[in-house]
């Protein structure tokens, strides 16, 4: 694995910006003053501002991203983006990164998710086998302005509200709920010790009990069903759903073009070469795991692999599902090896301190999540095309679950917005100066009001971008494949 020197928790600030890390050399009073000074320089109301460059061409920007993707998968990406303006938004992180680069920031930086829309939060199992709620996608993670994550989240909630037919009043209530939860959680974390912040997490079982007091019975029932379903999504269920026995050998089932076993994708010689490359990847990746987890992984052997199309924004990047078996078929482990490319934030906040983008993703995830996947690791390999490619590896399924946003009533989405806001604040509090950020946010609602204004304005921009991409598909500028 190729790597550079160890990265600092927060990248160097842009010229003229305020950096707030590390805070250990400052007293709490100094950090509070830092936040208040930042508020004078960048008033809370200014976060409503949105200026779109006149030379901005969203279609060209999206096409430019295609260069590093698998060509035959790009039409699937556009097909998924063009289902609704909300799915378009999910695949357009690069567009929003460019737009956010022109917005006001406090100069206080944290490790950011980089793509903190509402569908990138969800349920999964902690190492202690409790079900937790957390941020769960870190392909774009990089140190940067914490405001960008908040605006990405709140705008996604507003756009989802539009998609669900909510009124303007209902959408604003949802947007304000997320901003309020973020601000008040950050103020709570500012009063906690470093260890209290580090150990904080949302335990789903206790959370469901609390939701009984704020949600209608039908919404509580739907939430419990989502939780129960998540607990069934593990490697054993994946074995039943994704594989079968062929000539006495366990094999992943083809579901073209979404799932393609390696032998269906390449000629025999190339498929065998790629299989051996994946074995090398696993051997090298295991060195990035703690010793006890390395020993656990060593009890499994790779038996099959397939390319799997995932997500919306990720479509076209190389993603493999790997079937490993222990003693027999009753002891499976499904891993996902996913290609890590440069973050969409890099050209605006500076390149990652890690030369290896797999390391960037893994470090960012470990920094922001309260409890991570025990098999999370990384590796750089030379592909069959002779090019270096960075991958990170994690379990394909481990009690994973997500909401069905289209089914949510406004009150339910407002509650979900609060969970996301709290979770994002916790993630930022772990890596940035929570005391300075809390002092910057203050005790009024000016910040969430401004971000709610921003989110409505950005929903209009997103709608126009969606229509432009739809027109590009109609005119043959791009090719889209639907129903996938």
Characterization of this structure:
This protein is 47% helix and 14% strand. The protein is α+β, with helices and mostly antiparallel strands and 484 residues long. It folds into 2 domains: 23-230 and 405-474, no CATH class; 235-395, no CATH class. A hairpin with a 5-residue loop joins strand 12 and strand 13. Helix 6 crosses helix 19 (446-474) and helix 7 (168-190) runs parallel beside helix 17 (410-431). The radius of gyration is 22 Å and the shape is globular.
Brief characterization of the structure:
The protein has about 475 residues and is an alpha+beta fold. It contains 19 helices and 13 strands.
* Mean pLDDT score: 91
Task: State Rg.
Answer: 22 Å
What is the total tally of β strands? 13
Q: Which class of secondary structure composition applies to the elements?
A: alpha+beta
Keyphrases for this structure?
single chain; 484 residues; six-stranded antiparallel beta sheet; three-stranded antiparallel beta sheet; 19 helices
